[in-house]
């Protein structure tokens, strides 16, 4: 069971990070065209929806399987990398779920109501990039077992 949960944990991490990469790339490439045409707005809204369907379940899967793996490891003295994975990874996953949900819906509303006006998404892209850096930072610390 431990091996299966580890597989789910890594699969969820791939879906979560992959979804973030896709939305950062798509919205970043479309950012200059947003608001100017209905097609680019529709593509951006669809990209955000697909991101939500990939990344949110991935983050929930990482949280659930990570909790199971931590409980199976037991308590006691833990190395630093495991503490960072527990506290940092869990906090980032919960923060990511909340922030991406709220900001994604705000950007979708802006895109829907653009009406030919330019739509600024720099705050959204900056936040998504910061989350990506935090996630990859935790993955790096865990991979190096610092």
TrEMBL record:
The chain crosses the membrane at residues 7-30, 50-71, 80-103, 123-144. Keywords: Membrane, Transmembrane, Transmembrane helix. It comes from the Bacteria. This is DUF2269 family protein.
